[in-house]
Amino acid sequence: MRCQFDFRPYRRKFLRAVITSHGIWDTREGIILRLSDETGKIGWGEIAPISWFGSETLEQALTFCQQLPKEITPKIIFSIPDTLPASQFGFESAFEQLSPNRINSAFCFACSGLLPAGESVLEAWQSLWHQGYSTMKWKIGVYPTDLELEILRLLVQKLPASTKLRLDANGKLSYKQAQLWLATCDELNTSQELTAEVEFMEQPLAVEEFAAMLELSGLYQTAIALDESVATLKQLENCFQQGWRGIFIIKPAIAGSPFYLRQFCRQHNIDAVFSSVFETDIGRKAALQLAAELSPANPRALGFGVNHYFDADNESAWLENLW
């Protein structure tokens, strides 16, 4: 089987900048892929790299696409090296759409809405709550710890009953700061006066501090989720082999091969939360398809509540204008 191949780079401006401990992110860049078979059937894919998270750079992905012939084979697609995980996802996702045996799994999951960093969270949660989000994620490690802990205490007092809050440090806390955060979360979660819950903390320490995170996971009641540490399938396998049995945040669009990700998740009954990388609707549908296939029977809320960062109403027209 041979496929005609074409691609288009894209740039999407966020409606509001995403502020994390990595810095300020105001434009999403990526590549839309199009494969067509001999019958004219089209498969769409997306390469949405985040280089500081462990994927290839956009430049590396573009270079790879540019050197490919206009007609490619499954052998080429399934030979993409592991150093290009976002490209693996994009090409395999597009190719899967051409399969006559493809079955789309139905999915209807709750999602976690992404809150802004800093003090604005004390008002911003209301908009997400009215949109139907009962699980929310707040970026921490951006401002001084004392200030953010004060904001956290105010926030959990404001959140409605049964709300779950996730804290995402993006690996920027020190060991002592992580201890302080986790101890505070344990205190808040056991308070008789509060009905909201800190569900877990994502990636408190840097990737190279895996042993320390493994240690912390056994010292506090508040769960820890690995994020940057398991950005790619190779990292996911490595952390599992080293004994991590806590929560894994899986970002399918940068994890690598969907084929091998399915194999791993089906072999090991991991506690997985599938999450977005601010991909377009093309990448999001492919990622949600994987989540529908691989999420546990009672899944946690998915990390795809990011549509409010883009002009979602004009997305279809925007994609059509690429060609």
In short:
Helices cover 36% and strands 24% of the residues. The chain is built from twelve helices and twelve strands.
Explain this structure.
The chain has 323 residues and is an alpha/beta fold. The protein has two domains: 3-104, Enolase-like, domain 1; 111-312, Enolase-like C-terminal domain (TIM Barrel), CATH 3.20.20. 36% of the residues lie in helices and 24% in strands. The protein has twelve helices and twelve strands. The protein has helices spanning 58-66, 74-77, 85-96, 121-130, 145-158, 175-189, 210-217, 233-241, 252-255, 258-267, 281-294, 315-320, and strands spanning 3-20, 23-36, 42-47, 71-72, 111-115, 135-139, 164-168, 197-202, 223-226, 247-250, 271-274, 302-305. Strands 11-10-9-8-7-6-5-12 form an eight-stranded parallel beta sheet. The protein has a four-stranded antiparallel beta sheet with strand order 3-2-1-4, with helices on both faces. β8 (197-202), α7 and β9 (223-226) form a beta-alpha-beta unit. α5 (145-158) runs parallel beside α6. The radius of gyration is 20 Å and the shape is globular. The chain starts with a strand and ends with a helix.
